[in-house]
Each structure stands twice: as C-alpha cells, then as structure tokens.
Write a structure and sequence with these properties.
homodimer, alpha+beta, Creatine Amidinohydrolase, 2 domains, five-stranded mixed beta sheet
Chain lengths: 467, 467
C-alpha cells in the first residue's frame, strides 16, 4: 500500500461506475520463475491490481461486484512454514480492511464466485492477461484455452480512462523516479569513455536503481549501436569517436516509472557529423515540447517533428523533394522507424498490456499501418494530466537502408548515395518525460539531464575534471 | 554458445544413450513478461537446454530422436522488423550447424514431429516445465492441461546423471562466478555499518554482478533479520550491534553460479553472545568440510553437523539431554530448520526444477519427512565432481519458538527459558561452495571470503581504515 485507503476506495468506486454491471476479476501477479519454480525474478505487482488494490504481495486476486458494490480481496493466509522462510505478513482479512474492501476470502472461493456469476448469465470482466500463469488461471475460471482468454472492452476502457490522467500524488511519484533516472543518466554520461564496457555502465546504473530499493523500469538499453532499437548491453568496450546511447529509467517502490534517453560521444567530443544529426534530434525534441498541449493530437505533434526532421535532413543532403510529400510517403521513417512517444506511468509504456490502440488511439484518431507511423504508440488528443514521452531519434540502420535501396522505397525522397556514407554512424535518440499541463506541457524531474550537444560535452568535461 | 561444438555434441550423445528410445523435447526459455508482454525480465535460458544445446536465444526448442539419432533445433528465423529492434542474429540453420545438430526446423514443425511420434506410440520425453508458457506449449503438444504435463522419469534421471558431475571446464566457470561473489561479499562486508540501508547494499552488490554482464544467481538475501530464511532487503538502515546476513551469489554469462553467505556485525565488533553462536556455526562449517568426500552420504555429514551444533548449544545452556536422542528427535531444527546444503551448478539449487528427490536422493538414501531434515535438499552419496553448498546456520525465530514452546515440541531437549532471551538475536549462516575431489573436498573460489569471527572483524577494520 502506498497511497491512502480513501484513494484506493475512490478508484474502485469510479471503476464500478464506469463498468456498470457484472463481476470484475483483477488478478495480482505471482512470483515469476526464472530457472526453476522457487528461483523467481524480483516480484513485480500487476499495475492495474496495484492501482485499485494497492497491495504488493503475490497470490492475491481482487474481485469487484459492480451490482452489489461488494469488493473482495481473495488470497490464502500463510502458515508457519511461510513465516520461517518469508517472515510474518498481514492476514488477507487485515489487508482487505486496510484498503477498504468488504473483506477477504480464500483462493478456493474464486472459482465459486466466478462460477456463480457465469451461471446467472452475468458478465465477468477481465483485462488481457500477459503472465502465463494468469492466463491459465483465467482460462480455467472462464472455461477456455489459456491463449484465448477474452478480455472485456468495457473494463479496458474504464481502466484506461482512470489511469491515463495522473493525479498530483502520482506525478510526485513519477518525479521521484525521474530523480533516480537523473542519477542513472548523469552517472552513465560520466562513464562514457573509451575502454569501459557497455555492461559495466548498465551494471552501475542498475545498481543505482536497486540501491534505492527500485528496479529499472525496463531492461536498460546501453549501447554503441543506437541504430538497434533495443540494443542490450554487450561486453564490448566503448570506442573513442563512437556514439553511446543510454535509454534507461527507474521504477520506484510505488511502481511509477521514469524513461529517459541520452546519446553521448565516447571521449567527450561530438564529431561534426555527429553534432549535425544530434542538433536535429534536439530541435525535434524541443519542437514537440512547444506543440504538446491539451486538445492537440499527439499524432500531429509526431508529424510536425517528422516534417522538421525531413527539412533538416534535406539541408544535409540526406533527403530531397517536397517535405510534405516525403512525410506523407513515410520517407523519414528510414531514419525514424518508431513513434515520437508513449504514455508513461505505472508501466513505462503505460497500460500497453491492455492493448496499445485502446490506450493511444480512439474513435477519432485511428492507428496507421504505414511503416514507422504504425509504431507510434500514442496518437490521440492530449489531456491535462497525461504523461507521455518525447523521444525523437535518427538512426542509420544498414539492413533497412539496403532493403529500401534494393526495393526503391521512397527513392525520390532519399539520397541513398549519401546515406550509404552514414552506415557506420549508429543512432541518436533524446527522450524526456513530459506532463501535459493546463496550457502546454513541462518536463518531469527537477533537474534536466543535459541533452543539448554543447551541454553534454560540458557535463562530461566537468565530470572528468572533477576526478 | 560457450563451450565447444564437440562438448554439446558429446553431451547429447550421452543423453540419447541414457534415455535409450523415444523423442526428447527440450524447450528453451522465452522472454518472461514483467508488467506487460513486451517488458520482460532479463532473459535467462533454461539450464538443461543450454547444457545440451548451448544457445541463449529465446524461442528455441531442441528435439532429439533417440532412435534415429537425429537432433533438431526448432525455431523461427527473424525478419527485418526484428532486425530493426534487436539487430542481426544467426539463422536457426546456422545455429544448428554451430552446435552440431542435424539441422534447423521452423516452429510449426514441432507439433508435427511430436504428433507423429505419439501416433506411432513412441515415448515423448519432457522435463518438468516450470515456466507457465512452456507448460501451455507442452500441454498443447501432449494433449493435456498445462498444470498436468507429465515429465519423463527416464529423461530426468539421465539429465541428473550428466549434470551432477561437473567437468573441469564447468568448474572453471563456477570459480569465475565465485570470484565475482567474492567481490560482492567483501564489498557488502565493507558497507556493514550503521545508517546504510539493506537495499543500498543489495543494490551495490547486484550492480557488481551486472557490471560483469552477470546476474545474481538468486534474489540476494541482505538482511538484519537473518532469522527470516529468505529475508529480502528492506529500506531499514543497519543498526549498531545487530547482525547483518548476506546470502548472495553471481551467475556468469555461461549460467554457472556461486552462492555464499556471511554474517557480519554492524559496527564491526561481534558481542560476546553473537560471537559464541558465530563460532558454533563456523565450526559446523569446518566439520562439514572435513567430512565431505566421495562415497560419504551428505545426509550423514548433515547429521554430524547437527550433533556438533547440539553439543555446543548444550554448552551454552540452550539445549540439554542426550545429543544423539536430541538429533534423532530433530530438536536442533528449532535452530537449524534447513539442510546443510544443496547441489550447485547452472542452477544455484542445481536441477531443483527436475524434482529435488531425484537430484538429492536415490533408492539408497530416501528423503525424510521430519521438520528440518525434510528441508535437506541433498542427502545421497557424494561423488567426485559434485559441487554442493556447505551452509550451516543458527537462527532464533520468535514465531517458531512460541509454537514449539506452546506445543511442547522436543521440550526435553530445549531450554525454552534461556531460548526466550535470544528472541531478538536474529540469525547466523555461513555458506561456501565446495567441490568433491578424489579424496575429500575443497572450497571453490580462489580467495576465501573471511568467515571466522576474528577474520570478519579484522577485514571490516581494514576496510574502514582504508577510507
């Protein structure tokens, strides 16, 4: 439990109201086996379970009856063996009282409660399960195959409506995650020198998160190959003159995340060519900040960024032709194959497991199937209280360049001869977390991790001087 | 791949021979979702898959036909989208060739291969699955419920026979893990001072493992409450005068583990009472080293340790009566509710997922149901090349003391009045990894992490002087 009983009680009341009728079954997470049943990964509660029930113990299920208003915490009490191995914990009834539920019930009651509801022809609402143990449990409850559990659109929409708009206390938690993210990123920047391995940097910044009892909000991307979108750290040492991309965030004990990316020059100085591309990405990042505001579609902000990027890549001779036509054709996606950003909150891609199109799109704004634009996770109109990432990037992906050149894709907008000379460039991304405010937006996190090329160089110089 | 093609080829040949007939299906692991499908925990390959097939990519299954001798690597090749997100990887056929398999086949062939074998009445051998996605896959292949997949005893026995005896190259990897474990533990010892939080120490030592591209071999136990067997780190600061128990290990990129425990005094000096108990545990640790040798049952080593512990606890007035009778009654288990040790290798509790009784017991040595002894994971005769842990401990568990006192359990051997005065003591454990040699055993790891009370105090003094 992190927020007050009133907070959780109020959230569940809103959920009941939005869903209207039927039985809501919200399973919490269990321990996730790594290499044998008893050796689990670090426990991570399900975000929606935690949002509505607040508890972080494994083996719990929340059941909300929209019609009777009853709210049950389902789970089994522990015995003396558990106490020896895991210490004393609260009873299920005690936890239920602490979060304002009607009461606690043992796990064997779950099948009875769901069975009764189904027998009476009532709707049983579940979210799309993503853990396979949960899939099996829900399949058994609902009488289907584990990979065919049908989620309730009504429940998804209700949860998305509630979790999308962050309260002040939620924003405070995201700011706390950003403060740890600041330490992770500035530490990585200080370590960005020849001979240090990617893994070492990833280990140090992961240790910073763990040292606060946190986890990283996703597996840190720490790589000299920024052109590989999810480039996990290798044992390769950093090389003078390359770019070092770090995309990493912290997740607090309250399960709120940060997510930032910075790209630094190994050795401390960008080359001319690196700086030109870095400046474009930084300007795209700033443009998004200028445009993002309540009522604006994030899809339009994304397209504005694509236009600016195309203009600037034309100036460098990498693109050509009419900017508007090039963006319409998706030519810029050779360099930016992903979207400008995503929702962020308790999940670093907030609520992605509920279905990206339900989170980032709506009846008015529909997802695209075009390469690049199809990867934009957040397109719909922004609202005050939304937290999204602003993360433009420019990458030179040899396999993609070869493919497009061979196929002639967008050839009228792309100067492949010049692009060829960038095949060893790598990639640059700059990412911040932004809060949509009443009249615009602001970055989250008290301190800004340096991101302008000159500021990055200056920061590295200061760090190395300080030693 | 870590060892040579010949190593993997030879291991599979031995496996075929031991199993004799039928089709062996060995699924590798997939990414394990943390809080939504695309946000996974760090990938960890299945140990048995890696032992026989060597590969660390997700989405692979090994199929060995014992009758035809064919060995297939089953998996799907990646496409351009995967290359953008994850970089270029080897083809399935290429990987199959690299490890000496007959060839690669796409995932859709798996159901055909298994279906054909079942239709012909052939045995299909699988190990007990522990990941829920694997349970679902095997259930679909074998036509059963995911929680009712029946493992092949013949395959379990064959895998246990092969993986139990470590080769020289495997021991070298365990030694490498121990070297990282040494750094983790000595760092923790140096940090053992008032005001530092358990989480901070856990974060720092986890960062050391990650910095080598490793993981911790299990979630580190870093706690002032050593009496809670799996006491995970809290945000509580260390307090002067308490005991600080750290049970942690590293797992190398080759998936070989270390597992050590040390208990240090916060502030640097054991109290008289702490030192008395610590000395008993250290002497029990040493006794096990003297006794462990090929042909000796580890159950007997455990019981020898229990006898010594009982003798010494009698001297302190905590136990009483005849030592032999007390140990037979399990009275010492109030203080030592777990076993002396477990197999260690690619899993920190090696092969535990295959069934503890198949790994640690055999027809000659059967597991006990007595409290305490029932938790001994390794009882059977030791063989040259086995790696086991030597980890005696003494704990004062308030809930267990209350229960036994109320029930009068082993009352004739326990001085509950005196035991009551130790309820705030906590717990002490000392753990090393030992290799059974031709004529005895030796600890693994080039350097010994200090464990004798005087050495621990001296080490802490030196660390703090050095600052």
């Amino acid at each position: 439990m992190f927020f007050s009983r009133e907070t959780y009680t109020e959230r569940r009341a809103q959920l009941r109201q939005l869903v209207g009728t039927g039985l809501i079954v919200l399973p919490g997470n269990n321990d996730s086996p790594m290499n044998y049943p008893a050796n689990g990964y670090k426990f991570r509660q399900d975000s929606s379970f935690r949002y509505f029930f607040g508890l972080v113990r494994e083996g719990l299920v929340g059941v909300i009856d929209c019609d009777s208003g009853e709210e049950w915490l389902v789970g089994d009490d522990i015995d003396i063996d558990d106490i020896i191995w895991y210490g004393t914990v609260d009873s299920v009834a005690g936890m239920a009282a602490a979060i304002g539920c009607t009461g606690g019930r043992p796990m064997k009651d779950l099948a009875v409660m769901v069975g009764d509801a189904l027998a009476k022809g009532r709707e049983v609402h579940v979210l799309p399960p993503y853990r396979y143990d949960t899939k099996i449990m829900l399949a058994d409850l609902l009488g289907t195959h584990p990979l065919q559990v049908k989620a309730s659109r009504k429940l998804i929409d209700a949860v998305v409506a509630l979790r999308s708009v962050k309260s002040l206390e939620e924003i405070r938690e995201i700011e706390a995650a950003c403060a740890i993210g600041y330490m992770m990123h500035t530490t990585a920047m200080g370590l960005c020198r020849p001979g240090i391995t990617e893994q070492y940097v990833a280990g140090v910044i992961g240790g910073i998160a763990s040292g606060y009892g946190c986890i990283t909000s996703f597996p840190s991307i720490v790589t000299q190959h920024g052109e590989v979108m999810h480039g996990y750290p290798s044992d390769q040492p950093l090389e003078e003159g390359r770019l070092f991309l770090v995309d990493a965030g912290a997740e607090t004990n309250s399960n709120y995340c940060s997510d930032h990316t910075r790209t630094s020059p190994v050795g401390g100085k960008f080359t001319q060519r690196q700086r030109e591309i870095h400046d474009i990405v930084a300007d795209c990042h700033d443009l998004a900040m200028q445009k993002a505001a309540p009522g604006v579609k994030y899809l339009d902000v994304h397209l504005d960024v694509c236009r600016l990027m195309t203009e600037r890549l034309k100036e460098l001779g990498l693109m050509r032709g009419d900017t508007e036509e090039a963006v319409r054709a998706g030519a810029h996606a050779l360099f930016l194959p992903h979207g400008l950003g995503h929702m962020m909150g308790m999940d670093v891609h907030d609520m992605e497991g509920l279905g990206q199109t339900f989170v980032g799109y709506d009846d008015e704004t529909r997802p695209s199937t075009q390469f690049g634009l199809a990867s934009l996770r957040m397109g719909r109109r922004l609202q005050k209280g939304f937290v999204v990432t602003d993360e433009p990037g420019i990458y030179f992906i040899p396999a993609l360049i070869d493919k497009w050149r061979a196929e002639g894709t967008c050839a009228q907008f792309l100067n492949f001869d010049k692009i060829e000379t960038y095949k060893d460039f790598g990639g640059i991304r700059i990412e911040d977390d932004i809060l949509i405010t009443a009249d615009g937006c602001r970055t989250l996190g008290e301190e800004t991790i340096p991101y302008r090329a000159a500021d990055v160089e200056e920061f590295i110089r200061q760090q190395q001087d300080a030693e």
